[in-house]
Amino acid sequence: MTTPPSTITSPLATGWIGRLWRRLEARLRPAPITTTEMLKIFLEERAALIAQKCAIDYCRGKTGLASYALFTEKPFLDALDVCRWETFVAVLGDLLIVAEGHLRPHVSAEQHPRLCEALLAIYSAVLAALPALAHRAHGWSDATESFAPRLKAASAGNPRQALDVADHSARRLFDTLPIHIRMRELDEEPVYGSVRFRMIAVSQEMQRRFVATDLIEQFLAAPAP
Fold first, then answer.
1. Where are the domains of the chain?
2. Per-residue pLDDT of the chain (225 residues; tens, 9 = 90+)
3. Model pTM?
4. Distance between CA atoms of 194 and 177, rounded to whole angstroms?
5. In this structure, are residues 88 and 126 in contact, taking their beta carbons and an 8 Å threshold?
């Protein structure tokens, strides 16, 4: 009796080829987002990616060959950290607003406030877990206070798309870039375009991966904040 090919396990399959295949499969067919914890991790990762890539890519492109030396200078790196953290927090809020737009059609009018409360709770939880930063001696309470009315206003109108909110994050990135304003004053549109492009990509990923019914069920089952 021959062994079915699907049950054959070779050292090669369980070794580096197997690991490579699993990584490729995870990239090409990422897992559906079915739990609030998965949603939180997804939003954190994508906000960090947008903040990191947009800031570093701009600085490297702007300074060219000099970027090698620039990225060894502590004052520059400290300023870059400020830019990345501030942009991360802005992008996180904007992605939550986009997520609200994707999830809203799956809740009733009576359930909608609970959805918004749960999304605000995710934002607050992520910010509360951020490390202590030199430029943020008093933490991020002001960011949470300003995000709450933004989310409320967004949830009261038509569902927001990525393009509707991306410029808020782009402005925060542009204002905190560690490049002197005289050197970047003509680069506003490329910076904004970079943020818009990446946020649209994340919004499209939400459409593919969100299992809205499962997420809504968890949000409504959780105790009110």
1. 33-221
2. 444 444 445 554 556 666 655 565 555 668 999 999 999 999 999 999 999 999 999 999 999 888 889 899 999 999 999 999 999 999 999 999 999 999 999 999 999 999 999 999 999 999 999 988 989 988 999 999 999 999 999 999 999 999 999 999 999 999 999 999 999 989 999 999 999 999 999 999 999 999 999 999 999 887 665
3. 0.86
4. 14
5. no
